[in-house]
Design brief:
heterodimer; A: six-stranded antiparallel β-sheet; B: five-stranded mixed β-sheet; 2% helix
Chain lengths: 414, 251
């Protein structure tokens, strides 16, 4: 029987995943963290290929994980069905070996639903290894979803430095009826042996995007300049394999253990920039409020505004839209809190006190970036994302220096 | 006269910084009676490319009002306040939990690791791993889900469920929403493992699927928390414009 290439679909297998803790092939759960969203139409080599032989490949919903799963159906011929990630069989260039050495000791994980014997295979330059799902991996042929985790070492002889197809799926070859075969798979990824958590923060100049060492504000008049964006932003890169992670942002200006300098000693809200007299560098009780915003792409210097009808404390960016009313309705800036920010007794029914993992202080989580006040999460899950900071100088005194060495980004799992 | 130019220094790391830490496990969940103690380790590996010194502190993450006199520094101790890791080196950080006799419900603390390289200094980046304790025999389980919202977001049916925790232990809800056309399942949304819903608070969880074609569907939202299952059924009507009308059914 001839091998027939009947469909070339797409798959999210980004080269950029290499070196991260998870290498995604077909998954939605972790799409927002490490690797791309499931892509159905891309045919670029960068994104990888999905090749199918003697079968149709389609996406079905609901998936076992997330919204979509892959369904492989034979179209009526004897024999097996075969699908592979990484090669579509028509590319004129040879399969490009990928160095996956960082995954030594790791696993190939996927979900499968089968009712006849099927197999999984990994290919590398000069070799390959197949494992039968039922006979070797113990997957029941009961047409129910099962989670499968296969140590990469079980693919005997695997050359991790030259992987050409990180996962193939097939039904066992039979020359006689039943003619139909169906295989369902979902949530396919490689995982390192010991996933680590990496958070990179780089300060960059807003205009030039050049890396720099500190965040500053220029052309500010203490006592008159209102909200003003900093001249720099923070680029965040995250590599994280935990289900319930988040990153919260705050100052900790009263923390003597970590050496807060200047140290806030007042009885109010320690959040933001702490001012001290240049004549007497001592503990201070005066602060200037700060705010933050996170975006999934770099933006022009924000024009931070405060106040909208019924929302006097709302912070928004006049650059967000040319229509002011729309801009005001998009409260994309958040007031920066301190670990010791207290509740404001004047705002009845609202508790402004700092609370760990509270949505208000969380810039980015497994739900996406927190792009505006309220339950506005999503998008921008890929690294990098960008934090823009602002400060309000209208209550600044002269001569004073305002600074903090306690701006904290905390990656947590809860 | 224009006054001075403010200079504000937030001394961050100058270059890509950081926390290539490998920490296992990612979470500790302990169920014990008041007065008992427990000890275990987090294993930490330096996966950066430079040697680092890690400062370690324990801190409160969530404090139940009934436990306000109890601090994490009292019930959660670590074996060292700081330690050094060479490139690629792994060490065990031992922690001990001693449940105060007066504790009830949940105790939630964090072991916070703040790595500093020897060549750079600056922003405080922190990696925190949790220790959750449920004080056995004192649990009060009281939760519900309300304010479930259905919306059509550009062709995606988005379901948002608000889970309220009036009990005294943290909850990890597992949720699922299913949509039926007759007996046929036309859509199923799994919400995955959410972040915890702490006592006295709520958390909204969300999932999406493609908006089904015009029609009237029946459905159910099922949530399991702390071993309790609750199901609410609904009828969803979708018109040709994709507008949604939801009616909750009594049974």
């Amino acid at each position: 029987m001839a091998v027939v290439l009947c469909l070339t679909a797409a798959v999210a297998a980004e080269a950029g995943n290499i070196g991260h803790t998870v290498y995604g092939l077909w998954s939605e759960t972790y799409a927002g963290i490490i690797f791309g969203d499931v892509r159905y139409s891309s045919t670029t080599a960068t994104d990888g290929y999905l090749g199918a032989w003697n079968c149709f490949v389609s996406t079905i919903t609901p998936g076992a994980e997330g919204q979509y799963a892959l369904e492989l159906d034979t179209y009526g011929q004897n024999g097996g069905i075969f699908m592979q990630f990484g090669y579509n069989g028509t590319d004129t260039s040879p399969q490009v070996p990928t160095d996956m050495s960082a995954y030594a000791g790791g696993t190939l994980q996927f979900m499968a639903k089968i009712y006849t014997e099927c197999g999984v295979k990994i290919e590398w330059t000069g070799g390959s290894k197949e494992l039968l799902m039922n006979a070797k991996l113990g997957v029941a042929m009961d047409n129910q979803w099962h989670q499968v985790s296969v140590p990469l070492s079980w693919f005997t002889g695997i050359n991790l430095s030259a992987i050409t197809c990180p996962a193939d799926f097939y039904s066992q070859w039979l020359a006689s009826p039943p003619l139909t075969r169906t295989l369902y798979i979902d949530n396919v990824f490689w995982q390192k042996a010991n996933p680590s958590y990496t958070l990179n923060a780089t300060i960059k100049n807003t205009l030039t995007h050049a890396a720099t060492t500190q965040i500053t504000w220029s052309n500010v008049n203490l006592g008159s300049t209102k909200w003003k964006a900093a001249d720099q932003y923070i680029e965040l890169n995250l590599d994280c394999y935990m289900p319930n992670w988040g990153i919260q942002i705050y100052t900790d200006n009263t923390n003597t253990l970590t050496g807060a300098n200047p140290l806030y000693v007042g009885g109010g809200n320690p959040a933001g920039l702490v001012g001290y007299s240049t004549m007497t560098v001592t503990a201070s009780s005066q602060t200037l409020p700060m705010c933050w915003r996170i975006t999934d792409s770099t933006i022009t210097v924000p024009s931070i505004q405060q106040g909208a009808p019924s929302y006097p404390d709302r912070l928004w960016d006049a650059n967000t839209s040319t229509t002011t009313s729309i801009a005001k309705a998009y409260p994309c800036f958040f007031w920066l809190k301190d670990q010791k920010t207290p509740d404001n007794p004047l705002t009845v029914g609202i508790n402004e006190a700092f609370s760990n993992s509270d949505d208000y202080v969380t810039v980015w989580s497994s739900g996406g970036i927190h792009h505006a006040e309220g339950a506005n999460w999503g998008g921008g899950c890929y690294s990098p994302n960008y934090i823009y900071l602002g400060a309000n100088f209208s209550n600044g005194l002269t001569p004073r220096t305002y600074k903090t060495n306690e701006l904290t980004l905390e990656l947590f799992n809860d | 006269m224009r006054t001075l130019v403010v200079f504000l220094l937030l001394p961050f790391f100058a270059l890509p910084v950081f926390a290539g830490l490998n920490v296992n496990p990612s979470r500790a969940e302990i169920v014990m009676s008041a007065g008992q103690s427990y000890s275990n380790v987090y294993t930490i590996t330096n996966d950066y490319g430079v040697p680092i010194t890690i400062s370690v502190v324990t801190k409160d993450w969530f404090v139940l009002p009934e436990n306000k006199s109890i601090s994490a520094i009292d019930w959660l101790q670590v074996s060292t306040p700081s330690f050094h890791l060479a490139i690629g080196e792994t060490k065990e950080l031992r922690y001990q939990v001693v449940i105060p006799t007066q504790a009830v419900g949940s105790l939630v603390g964090m072991i916070s690791l703040s790595p500093k390289s020897e060549t750079e200094q600056g922003v405080t980046l922190v990696l925190s791993v949790p220790v959750f304790v449920t004080v056995a025999g004192t649990e009060k389980i009281d939760w519900d889900f309300t304010d479930t919202q259905f919306s059509n977001k550009s062709g995606k049916l988005q379901v948002s469920i608000k889970i309220t925790n009036a009990g005294n232990i943290h909850l990890r809800p597992v949720a699922e929403a299913v949509l039926f056309d007759g007996k046929k399942v036309v859509g199923k949304m799994s919400f995955g493992e959410s972040r915890p819903v702490y006592p006295g608070s709520y958390r909204s969880i969300m999932s999406t699927m493609d908006v089904p074609k015009k029609g009237t569907y029946k459905g159910a939202v099922k949530i399991v928390c702390a071993g309790q299952e609750k199901i609410k059924k609904f009828k969803l009507k979708i018109n040709k414009s994709g507008e949604l009308k939801i009616t909750w059914l009594k049974k």
